[in-house]
Amino acid sequence: MESLGQAMKNIIDKVFITVGSCPDCGAEMYQWREKLSSGEDRCGPTCMICGHKELKRKQDYDTRVMYNESLKKRALNYFKHSSIVPDKTLFEKRLKGYMVTDQETKNALEIAKRAVNEFILGKPVHVVFTGKSGTGKSHLAMSIAWDVLERSNYDKDVLYVNYRELLDQLRFAMNDKEAQRQIQGALMAELKTADLVIIDDIGAELGGNKTSDSSRYNNDTLTGLLEARQNMATVVTTNLTAKELQEAYGERILSRILQNSKGFVVSMKATKDKRLISGIGA
């Protein structure tokens, strides 16, 4: 008379087939002999010793993939649709495409890479790029944004705001106080919650006279942006020097810009206009 154990084994052998070893305990993995009418397996391999289920592992993997894809889609949608970027080709800029032409641009690239590391760690660093138009400030700022998104597996909210374009949008809505209030309210809410914000091209709104006094409205708007980013990861680009920033906006705004920026201020004085060299852009 066969033992109960042998009888069970005979039943198992009729119903199941072995398909390798369990990755957890090393015992045999079993799978149904009969397939579904569609020809597909009824379920993934299972270990009868420790309970490891290959199907569950696959389902868990598929769930992670779907979650990561959802996270990426949400982060990119936020970045591209909440940002204020008048020149959409700027979204194409990456660090690997930044042209290093001298020690100054080499230093700028190194600081940009170091800033990304700080932002990934959640450090409230302020990075400040100053220099003439066409020296690559916006290129580096956008590249930092992309690097932070990609290296965080799209688990960071990143916002890019061209300051002059923002002012133009607000001025356009001046005759509609409700629309202006909604724009400002929505922007401030996003500025306060985004993991990283780039405020691009401060000073361009002043026109050719860089050291002229900024309007009260301009100052109030810029102060609001910078106060919303106190002790938060921020990148600022400007065509003004520190002295010109102080003359145009005052000491208070300059202080807000330079907060937490030690070791992360890049002054591009010697770099030539790259747009004239190769068309890379500002």
TrEMBL record:
GO molecular function, one term: ATP binding
InterPro entries cross-referenced by the UniProt entry: AAA+_ATPase, IstB_ATP-bd, P-loop_NTPase
Keyword terms, alphabetized: ATP-binding, Nucleotide-binding
Keyword Nucleotide-binding on entry: yes
Domain AAA+ ATPase: 123-264
Entry annotated with the keyword Lyase: no
Taxonomic superkingdom: Bacteria
A Pfam short name: IstB_IS21
Record protein name field: ATP-binding protein
Species whose genome carries this gene: Enterococcus avium (Streptococcus avium)
